Amino acid sequence: MLDELHVFAVVVEQSSMNKASAALNLSQPALSRKIAKLEQDLGALLFNRVGKRLELTRIGQLTYEYAVESRQQHLRFLNLVAEYKSAGRSTLTIGASLTTLQSTLPDLIQALTARSPELDIKAITGKTHEIVTLVRERKADLGIVASRIDDPQLKCVPLFDDHLVLVLPRNHFVMDKGLPVITDLNALPMILFSKGTWYRILTDELFEKYRLLPDVRMEIDSFEAILRLLHTCRAATLLPKSYLRAEMLEDNDLLSVPIRELVDAKRTTSLIHAHSEGLSPAVRLWIDEIAAHYKRV
């Protein structure tokens, strides 16, 4: 239908089938067939023929407005593709909060580079407020943070919801009486992530809400190190569900245990970026690709 819409728009703009035929380098019978096909597809007349004059019907006027909008959008798309192709090898700088650096970014980078091996990805890490500043100051093309961001200078695109999961050694004593409940975290030996991230803030809020006082043995800023130390310290931990993989638990002989109160305490991981008019065509394409990636998974 795009071709017929283009032909129709030229007829309207030339106000004459003869002139439109010359402008499009089409014979008048071919031109008439395209207009007739468009009218057939729409199930409505586009012109009232008054003598030799063509007057748009109301549906014809609406169709012309849509044809112009479609033509402009098509041109923008072609320009975007041309700019992207002319840029050659592209670089994408992603700012990632400490939590998303470990839980979300590795899989995302793998998915993007598998789709486009020519893409160079640079990552900058920091706390969430630092990533917001980097994106606002255009030192990062986009940011992946484990929260929703309300900033008039930025656009925030929710990607997925996450929650905490109890992780502990397979033979941990807390499992002796069956599946743990939230109150079992009280006085439980635990290794927690370092303070200052959304994940630790969420953890502390849960402890306060349910009046829990776990026995905190260590505070570490590496999920991998926490997992490796659980057996040694006979401790448990709380980790984002997005980080955990079945093979990771199996390799470390660990269990992940969902607890209702933990599942209910959700947090949204989001993509943040500057408003579209300030972004390069390549970055706009990658933002769309990232959002589409999380709709597929």
Query: Looking at CATH, which topology of the largest domain would you report?
Result: D-Maltodextrin-Binding Protein, domain 2
Main sheet makeup = 5 strands, mixed
Low-confidence stretches: none
| Secondary-structure-derived class | alpha/beta
Share in helix: 40-55%
The radius of gyration is 29 Å
CATH second-level architecture of the largest domain: 3-Layer(aba) Sandwich
Average residue pLDDT = 87
Please identify the top-level CATH class of the largest domain.
Alpha Beta
Number of helices: 12
How far apart are the termini?
32 Å
| Overall geometric form | elongated
**Chain oligomer state:** single chain
Number of domains: 3
SSE ordering: HHHEEHEHHEHEEEEHEHEHEHEH
Placed side by side, the strands forming the largest sheet appear as 4-3-5-12-6
Sheet-strand content, in percent, reads 15-25%
Tally the beta strands: 12
